[in-house]
């Protein structure tokens, strides 16, 4: 079987991520169960509502298997709420909200503002200037020493990487620019074309 990217499909804009990956010839699986997770080589965690996603990860039985796969080196990319779930510290999360502690950043949920404060802006990134779509976006308030900043909005980090884990405050799947998806796929040992 060709290698493929799983897209966590419990909530959020997972379909747009699947379309972005398909447009660059990457096979995807929508992941809703541990059995589906077992068939992927990388995982993309989309936006949504992070505390709800955390609860759904628990109730679906996916939290612990995903944590184990990340710990074993599975490339993982979290966007918006996915970034919150991958962070080492959620500054304003619910008391029962778990995160994967996969990237050493402290984040604050919805810190760029509510839905009505959503905005778009060009970001300087590793792949060049990128048009970022920020919707109830989290803010990175601390970056650990092992974390590489791949993109900034002004002086503020909005795209980070630690090992094979990436996280973005914004929604690259809504920009009609697949360069960040291509960069993420490059972290896989072998990227399976459809």
List the helices and strands and how they pair.
Layout: E1 5-8, H1 14-23, E2 28-31, H2 34-37, E3 42-45, H3 50-59, H4 63-71, E4 76-79, H5 81-86, E5 87-90, E6 103-108, E7 119-125, E8 128-134, E9 139-143, E10 148-153, E11 156-162, E12 165-168, H6 179-185
Task: Give a quick rundown of the structure.
With 194 residues, this protein is an alpha/beta fold.
Structure commentary:
With 194 residues, this protein is an alpha/beta fold. The protein has a single domain, classed as Class I glutamine amidotransferase (GATase) domain (Rossmann fold). It contains six helices and twelve strands. The radius of gyration is 15 Å and the shape is globular.
What is the CATH superfamily label? Class I glutamine amidotransferase (GATase) domain
What would you report as the Rg, rounded to the nearest angstrom?
Answer: 15 Å
Q: What's the tally of helices?
A: 6
Low-confidence stretches: none
Instruction: Sketch the major β-sheet.
Output: 9 strands, mixed
Roughly what fraction of the amino acids lie in strands?
Answer: 25-35%
Helix content: 10-25%
Going across the major beta sheet, what is the strand order? 2-1-3-4-12-11-10-7-8
How would you classify the helix and strand content by structural class? alpha/beta
Write down the CATH class: Alpha Beta
**Helix and strand pattern:** EHEHEHHEHEEEEEEEEH
Quote the average pLDDT.
90
The CATH level-2 architecture is identified as 3-Layer(aba) Sandwich
């Amino acid at each position: 079987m060709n290698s493929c990217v799983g897209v966590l499909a419990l909530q959020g804009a997972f379909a747009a991520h699947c379309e972005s990956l398909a447009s660059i010839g990457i096979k995807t699986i929508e992941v809703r169960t541990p059995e589906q997770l077992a068939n992927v080589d990388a995982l993309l965690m989309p936006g949504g509502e992070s505390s709800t996603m955390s609860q759904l990860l628990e109730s679906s039985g996916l939290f612990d298997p995903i944590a184990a796969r990340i710990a074993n080196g599975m490339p993982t990319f979290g966007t918006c709420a996915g970034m919150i779930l991958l962070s080492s510290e959620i500054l304003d999360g619910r008391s029962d909200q778990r995160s994967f502690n996969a990237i050493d950043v402290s984040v604050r949920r919805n810190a760029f503002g509510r839905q009505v404060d959503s905005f778009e802006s060009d970001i300087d990134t590793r792949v060049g200037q990128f048009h970022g779509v920020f919707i109830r976006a989290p803010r990175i308030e601390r970056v650990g020493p092992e974390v590489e900043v791949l993109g900034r909005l002004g002086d503020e980090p909005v795209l980070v990487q630690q090992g094979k884990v990436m996280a973005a405050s914004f929604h690259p799947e809504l920009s009609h620019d697949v360069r960040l998806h291509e960069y993420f796929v490059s972290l896989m040992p072998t990227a399976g074309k459809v």
